[in-house]
Design goal:
Blueprint: E1 13-23, E2 29-36, E3 41-43, E4 46-48, H1 55-67, E5 69-83, E6 89-102, E7 112-117, H2 118-124, H3 128-138
Parallel strand pairs: 1-6
Antiparallel strand pairs: 1-2, 1-4, 2-3, 2-7, 5-6
């Protein structure tokens, strides 16, 4: 993926992460939130690129490091640009991902992981920019009431519908890994 240059300038810090989703026990969409004790916050798994690493590689690596999950990467669902705690311009690109294996184990970086509904995520996430990702990035993809939605396929949550044209497993934004 080509590196972003929002507002005409390359960010000082580039990072990548994901909104990891699954079908919950009632068939509703659930997403992963991680707790970082260093910042005492709840967010989506993400992290900075290593030298020579692509955004895609960083997203997959960071998700596995922070959650323990190996994931199938879908489409880019958005990005955030903001100033980090050191005042640097930081841009994080997010993908939609589905777990295909692995298990969470607490670490010094991430001590807790929770699967929550989209509604719970908007309440539990620490940062407005992450809540916006749920409302905008996911809200238009998982649509339970739209008459013009299409079936997302067998691996999607029961009853969930992708908004027309936004299935991350098809089209130019999808990938197998």
């Amino acid at each position: 993926m080509k590196r972003s240059r929002l507002f005409g300038r390359k960010p000082e810090v580039e990072a990548a992460g994901a909104v990891v989703w699954r079908a919950g026990p009632r068939g509703d969409v659930e997403v992963v939130l991680v707790h970082r004790p260093r910042y005492d916050d709840w967010s989506f798994p993400k992290g900075k690129l290593l030298p020579g690493e692509t955004l895609e590689e960083a997203a997959v690596r960071e998700v596995e490091e922070e959650t323990g999950f190996r994931c199938r990467r879908g489409e880019v669902i958005g990005n955030h640009r903001y100033r980090d705690h050191l005042g640097r311009t930081k841009e994080v690109t997010y993908w939609l991902m589905e777990p295909v294996g692995g298990r969470f184990g607490p670490s010094a970086e991430v001590d807790q992981l929770r699967w929550v509904s989209l509604e719970e995520a908007t309440r539990e996430l620490t940062y407005d920019r992450d809540r916006e990702m749920v409302r905008i990035g996911l809200g238009r993809r998982f649509d339970r009431s739209s008459a013009d939605a299409r079936n997302p396929g067998p691996s999607a949550p029961a009853g969930a519908r992708w908004a027309r044209g936004s299935d991350p497993r098809t089209g130019s934004g999808s990938t197998d890994g």
